[in-house]
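DM between two lab members

TW: hey, do you still have the 2og-fe oxygenase family entry open?
JB: yeah, one sec
JB: this one, 363 aa:
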Amino acid sequence: MAPTLDVPKTVDWMGKTVPVWSMQTINYSSLLSQEPGEVDKVVNACIEEGYFYLDLKGIDGRRMLSDQKELQALMKRFFAEPIGVKNEFGLLSSHLGYEPVGSRTGVAAGTKDSYEMLKVSRDEIQADSPRIPAPVKNSADMLVLENAIGSCNTVTKVILSALSTGLALTGSGRFENSHRNERPSTTTLSMMHYLPHEIAGKDRIGHQKHTDISTLTLLFSDQWGLQVRPPGTCGAREMGFVEPKEGCAFVHVGDSLRFASGMKFQSCIHRVVPFDPTEHRYSIAYFLRAENDTMFIDSEGRAITAAQWHDEKFKAFTDPEMWQAMAPSSMILGGMKEDGEDEPIVVPAQVPVVMPMSVPVQN
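TW: and the structure you got?
JB:
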């Protein structure tokens, strides 16, 4: 089991001492009211770190937490189906459909990822007849998907509005005005299932370090496994875990918001590793993305649309590892610079790897 202390500083993981990085906590109800102190706090979190907890326990966020619980039950049922049923449509586009295990590069050198994913496009769910696999296309499940996407969309727009206010943006320059629901975008709700090591196989592990294509990522998981690299120049910063926090979502700044802010905001470098290689791990991510024709200046100084950036980066995720190594870091890491070297993760020769029932935490 994962550690349970509120703010641990390090954790023993796979024979190593690994940091557990802290995150600022932003109160959603205060953000919804655009209270000046909370607006300043969320702006500073995006400038200094590029990630934060979003506290949804107040009356304004409880519906979202309820929607996520229903969605988690739906995704567990879906991922228990045979592969042929899950893959009814395959991957219709980079932001819609089913991705099987091993579609992307994994954490350890020479490995593939260890997760399968169901992606539901916001544009698609607004259509008259969305292309959703049969196991979750009944009326009850469709309502769950619609509610989850609707609540995620509202929450991320509230954050964008607060950031616009905090930066004194006006008119069309406000971030939310390039994220209108009626305009085409690659905004997606993704449900991810990380398989236990003994099922996925030793050549499939975690999810490589990267920054997100999105404007904002709203991430839900009550299981350990997410690691971030804090930005900064005061010494080497290594990848470390962040602790799941009850009643809170993780929020990551993505590349598009970094570009739109004129590089003021940090894009969060993160990855997913198997904290306990014997468990099934589930997470839900809402990737809010700008309208397809929104123009940015990217980290290489290119004028590029949101749709072009999405397509180029998605291709980089699925490219062979050798090609990724030759590509500029601006693609996988969104132009973010790394301050430290990661210790290589070595896939154990024996599977399954049994983790201890309790993991000691050092203060």
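TW: got it. The first helix runs from residue 28 to 32. The chain has one domain: 11-340.
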